[in-house]
Design a protein that fits this description.
Elements lengths: L5 E4 L6 H12 L4 E5 L14 E3 L5 H11 L3 E4 L5 H6 L1 H20 L4 E7 L23 H20 L3 E6 L1 E3 L12 H11 L2 E4 L7 E5 H12 L12 E2 L3 E3 L1 H9 L6 E4 L3 H9 L7 H7 L7 H15 L2
Parallel strand pairs: 1-2, 1-4, 2-3, 4-5, 5-6, 6-10, 7-9, 8-12
Antiparallel strand pairs: 9-11
Helix pairs in contact: 2-4, 4-5, 6-8
This protein binds (3R)-3-hydroxy-L-norvaline.
C-alpha cells in the first residue's frame, strides 16, 4: 500500500486531466486527490476517486484539504498560460504567484513534497536560442515567463530555508489528445491535429518557421513522476530542469501530418501577441542536466507522436 497521499491542483487542465488517472493507476485511486476551481463534467476521473473544489488563491482552503486528506505530496498544476497572461497580467500574477505562495506556505508545516511545472518560457530574447543551456540567463519578456522564473526562485528558497522537497521541470509545449490546452502560445501544435481530421485545413497563428520545443503527454507524465521519485542527492538543478523531446516548426509539423493526410492544407494568419512570445523563447533546449542528474529519456519523437495522436484522435473525431 502506497504511503503517498497526493493532491493535484489544476486537475481539470490539459496536464491534470491525464495526470490524475496516471497517478491513480500508480498509487491507487484513494491516494490521489484531484482538485480544481470548478468541475468539468466531461472529466472522466471525477467519480473515480476523491475530488475537492479548491481555489488556490484562498490559503485556508488549501490547508483544510491537506489536513482532511493527510496530503504529503502536491503536484501544483494550477496556472494561467502565456497568451492568456498577456491579456490580463495582474490576474496571472494572482493565480500563478500568489497561488504558489499559498501552496508553499500550506505545505511548509506538514512538509509536503511539491512538483512545480516551470516552462521554457523562463528564457527571454537574450538567452542562446539554439540548445539553450540549463544555466542560461532567465530574463523573460512575458508575464507568464516572469511568473515561472519567480516561481523557480521561490521554490529554491523554500527548499533552502525550510527544507521543503520541491522539484520542477521546464516543460516545452505540451501535445496531448485528452484535453485541449487553454491560452498557450504552443496550442497550435494540438489544434492542428483536430483541424486536419475535421476540416482538412488549418489556419496557423504562428509563422511557419517558428521553432519551439514540444513534448508528448506520455513523456510529460513519466518525466514528472520519475523526477519526484529520483534520489534527491543527485539533483543539482531541482528548480527547474530543462526538458525537451521534439524540436519542431509549424511547417515541419504540417509536413509530418501530410504524410498521413495527403489532402491536408495550411495557411498562416499571424497572431502578433503569440508570435512575439514565441520569438522570445528558445528554438531548442539543452536538457543534458536532466539526462545526467535523474536519467531523463523521452520516448516520443515527431514521427511517433504524430502517429499516436492521429490514432487516438481519429477514433474520437468521427
Ligand atoms: C504556453 N503551453 O504556451 C504553454 C507552455 C512552453 C509553452 O508553457 O504558454
Amino acid at each position: 500500500m502506497s504511503k503517498k497521499k497526493i493532491l493535484i491542483t489544476g486537475a481539470m487542465g490539459q496536464i491534470g486531466t491525464e495526470l490524475v488517472p496516471y497517478l491513480r493507476e500508480l498509487y491507487g485511486p484513494d491516494h490521489v486527490v484531484a482538485s480544481g476551481r470548478r468541475i468539468k463534467p466531461e472529466c472522466s476521473f471525477i467519480d473515480q476517486g476523491p475530488f475537492e473544489l479548491l481555489d488556490i488563491t484562498k490559503p485556508g482552503d488549501i490547508s483544510a484539504v491537506i489536513r482532511k486528506h493527510g496530503i504529503n505530496t502536491i503536484y501544483h498544476l494550477a496556472s494561467l498560460l502565456s497568451a492568456t497572461g498577456e491579456e490580463d497580467p495582474q490576474t496571472l500574477w494572482e493565480i500563478n504567484m500568489n497561488g504558489l505562495v499559498n501552496i508553499l506556505e500550506a505545505a511548509r508545516e506538514p512538509q509536503c513534497s511539491i512538483f512545480f511545472p516551470s516552462s521554457i518560457a523562463v528564457f527571454g530574447p537574450d538567452a542562446p536560442k539554439v540548445k539553450t543551456p540549463q544555466d542560461a540567463l532567465t530574463r523573460p519578456t512575458s508575464i507568464y515567463g516572469v511568473s515561472k522564473v519567480s516561481g523557480e526562485l521561490l521554490c529554491d528558497y523554500y527548499h533552502l530555508k525550510y527544507g521543503l522537497d520541491i522539484r520542477g521541470l521546464r516543460y516545452p509545449g505540451v501535445i496531448s489528445n485528452a484535453a485541449l490546452p487553454g491560452g498557450g502560445t504552443t496550442d497550435y501544435a494540438v489544434h492542428i491535429f483536430y483541424a486536419a481530421l475535421r476540416e482538412g485545413r488549418y489556419t496557423c497563428f504562428l509563422k511557419e518557421d517558428s521553432s519551439i520545443d514540444m513534448i508528448y503527454m506520455p513523456d510529460v507524465l513519466e518525466g514528472a513522476v520519475q523526477l519526484m521519485n529520483a534520489d534527491p542527492a543527485g539533483l543539482v538543478h531541482r528548480n527547474a530542469f530543462n526538458v525537451s523531446a521534439i524540436t519542431v516548426t509549424p511547417a515541419e509539423l504540417y509536413r509530418e501530418l501530410k504524410k498521413h493526410i495527403p489532402e491536408f492544407t495550411i495557411n498562416y494568419e499571424i497572431d502578433p501577441v503569440r508570435q512575439a512570445i514565441a520569438d522570445s523563447w528558445p528554438d531548442s533546449l539543452d536538457d543534458s542536466a536532466a539526462r545526467s542528474e535523474w536519467k531523463w529519456n523521452p520516448k516520443y519523437n515527431l514521427e511517433t507522436m504524430t502517429r499516436d495522436m492521429l490514432d487516438v484522435l481519429s477514433k474520437k473525431i468521427r
